[in-house]
Amino acid sequence: MLIRLARLDEAGDVAELWMQLVDYHRALDPDLPAPEPDGIQRYAKFILNLLRRDDARVYVLIDRRGRVAGYALGMIIDLVPEAFVQEKAGFIADVYIEPPMRTQGYGRALVEHLFNWFREHHLTLIECDVASKNTQGIAFWQHLSGRPIMTRLRFSPSPFSETDHGKP
pLDDT (tens digit, 9 = 90+) per residue, 48-57? Predict the structure, then answer.
């Protein structure tokens, strides 16, 4: 197995894995976003753009047959609005490994490549999002010393009846 930077001609392969990631999350929780009909093409274009930027990295896992079997996407971003002290941070947007290759250390190895790149940029703050129903993902990130710092809640369109006028 080999982990390396993604090449431009692999953007479509990464997008196919992204679709598997979306399907995985939607099976866990149908409230998570559904892809557009042309979502794979849009994501491939997004990856092509990122591969040309200095503030993003896409690492791929190449299996024994030479196929892209996993990927990790990280970026350098500002995590907080302007009213807060600004600190550049690493953000891990996606990590996905095809199911037959999971639990063999490949996800950790992909993330380690991102962490090394973040360290090269002297970043001390690194974050990621993980779906609340993704227990495997939560366990993975916690095993890598990730800790929760924020919980996002979702509400139905109208949690109060019209006669309540929003009063508790």
Answer: 999 999 999 9
